[in-house]
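Re: [help] complex structure
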Amino acid sequence: MVEVRFENVTKLYGKKLAINNISFDVKEGEFFSILGPTGAGKTTILKMIAGIEPVTSGKILFNNVIVNNMPPYERNVSMAFETYNLYSHFTVYENIAFPLRAPKWKLNLSKEEEKKRVVEIATFLGIEKLLDRRPQALSGGQKQRVSLARALVRKPQVYLLDEPIAHLDAKLKFSTQTLLREFATNYKSTIIYVTHDYREALALSDRMMVLRKGVIEQIDTPENIYYTPKTDFTGRLVGEPPMNMIDGELIKEANKALFKVGNYFTIPLRKELAEVAEKVAKLKNDKLNVRLGIRCEDIKLGLHKISESSFQLPIYAIVHEAESFIVSFELENTILQIRTKEDSELERLRISDLVWLDFVPEKIFFYENTMEISKS
Amino acid sequence: MSKIDCKNIWKIYNGNVIGVKDLTFTCNDKEFLAILGPSGGGKSSTLRMLAGLEEISKGEIQFDGKVVNQLGPAERNVALAFESYALYYRMNVYENIAFPLRAKGMKNKDVDKSVKDIAEALNLTSILKKKPAELAGGHQQRVSLARALVRRPNLTLLDEPLSHMDQRIRGEIRAQIRRIHELFGNTTIYVTHDQAEAISLCDRLLILNNAELQQIGTVNEIYNKPKNKFVAYFVGQPGMNFIDGTIESIDHVFLETSDGRISFKFNGEINPKYIGSNITIGVRPQQIKTVQNKEANSIISGVVKIVEFQGDNDVITLQLSDINKTQIKVVIPAGGYRYKRNDICWLEFDPNYIHLFDEEGNSIIER
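Output below.
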């Protein structure tokens, strides 16, 4: 197992900047995820670690040794691709055994030992019955698990997994995710995992990176990413519904501060919160514009006034979840979403009914506006 | 708007492949019904037969009591919105919405009023002059819906319209679809493989698997009274846990452990003939109470094998102390103790939320 470090790495494809001067390190034995939307540069990072893509500038180090010029086969990494890349003229067994047979790793396994390893990983991933088939006879989800088994069958210096469960259906994805977590816990391997699905990143990672257009937005534990996102972008990327982002105006009066959202509502801000808001507010047309972030679980709903800072809005829509429901409200720039547990009083509510809302003060964040938010 | 009745409908392809098997259900006037199931379950065949795009092999479909088997999509007055929006890219939004009205030969003045009314309701007024290519996915989705709804169809059919949408806007679109439904009251049938999607939008859920109806009911009925193990596992994330056990008496089941039997109570009616039978006990991961130390109500213990953080909760995978060392999942809400690997955890099952299934996987408990 190795520690992987990026020092000021930049990657250009022609003139297009894919990765912009990023530095981070992945510790030995760590499960490290890279989360970002399509086009953020996630796969590019993996390919540079594997040695398939050269670095334009900066250094990549394995255990403090620069590997920029080391060819892929010397880096001893194991990779699973989103596109499977299975050998169609081989059976599933042979596909999975392939890395064990590669002369460069000098494993020289006996037939029995090889079979034991292949069957073990195939059983672990629930594909042991497919070993005699060829890839053409498999569904997309089965192919993806074969690709994953092939990546996991060997013990390399670092595993590089690129959306390895993206094409599984919901139930299988969830159970395979649990298996990956088990694998990582049992083998203490260094794993770098690319995904666009925040649930996988939260569930699997020791630490994770949020990547946006080739730039690191935040690196932290899943808990800190979820509970204290540093930017509006991270807040929107993690959680479903994503963190609510409400654009409004910071109003400072003699001994109090207010947050005003058009004609929709105005709430008082405590001193500490007002100071945070002021730091990120932008002056425009004599107004201090600021963006408030709050998660859907951190807004209380009621038929009666809840506190001095609660306010009323008409219901836009109500949708159900298995054990809760989501009540939404229309604002100028967004549809505010609130998750509430089943409650007979609220159950009778309908569209356009006026209800009271109350933001939990400790759960309010203020952000610099770094992304367009509009009702879709 | 219509009441839709499917009476013993079958879809048989090439004489022997059964796509839909003897399906009977009703979608009431103004109801939002979701058809949910895995791919290959028969959802699309059902939708296509409802739309008039596919011949019905056997059985009858009725709209307001009138058989429509022989009618084409236009005569049935069915509106379809697909996952791919299928907008006309050369026309602007206004013309896209107007298209079905013009096709019917409606006068310009009436077309204008209908288009403007629906655009107003769906917040599309400001983008009527734009071309589809200039619009974000969510807007395109709504234009597609507006086009489906503008001619006041008897039935609106939606086929996985949100499945490829970004998680960041999915919630908003769900809210919009539900709002439109409440405002317009169209009879709507929505086909999806995504159980969360179906739960969020529908009045009732119909579950199909292997070409057969598994269950139809409100979300509450499906979630709390699943008729079989398939439904119990398919609906809910994570799905229901299953543990092998035996019926001890009319209101008790037991599990075998290396230290002997553990017996516990359930609420509900079962046929006494099951006493002594091996059955499967089902418990939802969201409906298990956990404590670190054994309490009076604790039933069985487990060892924490895996902890998965989900944001507003943790999902833990436990290995139980029964003889099968059954693995189950439990959802632990945020804010309490956070379990770690190898912790011991004691479980309590609410007798009202214990499910029992026979060897065929059918529910044997009535509540």
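Chain A touches chain B through 47 residues (CB under 8 Å).
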